[in-house]
Amino acid sequence: MCRTLATFPTTCLERAKEFKTRLGIFLHKSELGSDSGSVGKFEWSSKHNKESSSFSEDVLGWRESFDLLLSSKNGVAAFHAFLKTEFSEENLEFWLACEEFKKIRSAAKLTSRAHRIFDEFIRSEAPKEVNIDHETRELTRTNLQATTTTCFEVAQGKTRTLMEKDSYPRFLKSPAYQDLAARASAASACTSSCSLAEPSHT
């Protein structure tokens, strides 16, 4: 990072500021309920406040693999915001609900949450019914008879595959992400060039 703002090109400062604003707008509508594995709104972490280049790398990393996108809190929020524009956010919300479900240690809570997830995402004509085949739906129903942390494993895997092959490529090609990635690249380039310009001390 530059030692002082005076040594940082004005265009770079403007780009970084514009990048942050654009991302905030892009993710503004991204809110998930606590039952679906809350992601919340986009947040600038302390690390990103201190090192904008790390955040640029995070954004650019989302196009490297679907796993990197899902492992990024902001990536998940951005992907969710995109899915909402396509009215297809239920698959991601189900995947997130399953991730939270697997962390439950109480048997009573596990059973209760399993039925809530099934009613919300799996049963026919559920409020947020996910796109899975009949066999997977019935297998999941059967699994609820003896609830374990793996009872949604097959259904979760199929919705993940569907998102990776269908929604994820469209997300990467979307004007919103393309614009975001371009701004991240510009912000990263500015930070790099500014760092290179700093005098070294021996």
UniProtKB/TrEMBL annotation:
It is found in: Membrane. Residues 65-181 form the RGS domain. Signal peptide: none annotated. GO terms for molecular function: GTPase activator activity. SMART domains: RGS (SM00315). Regulates G protein-coupled receptor signaling cascades. Inhibits signal transduction by increasing the GTPase activity of G protein alpha subunits, thereby driving them into their inactive GDP-bound form. Plays an important role in the phototransduction cascade by regulating the lifetime and effective concentration of activated transducin alpha. May regulate extra and intracellular mitogenic signals. This is Regulator of G-protein signaling 16. The gene is RGS16.
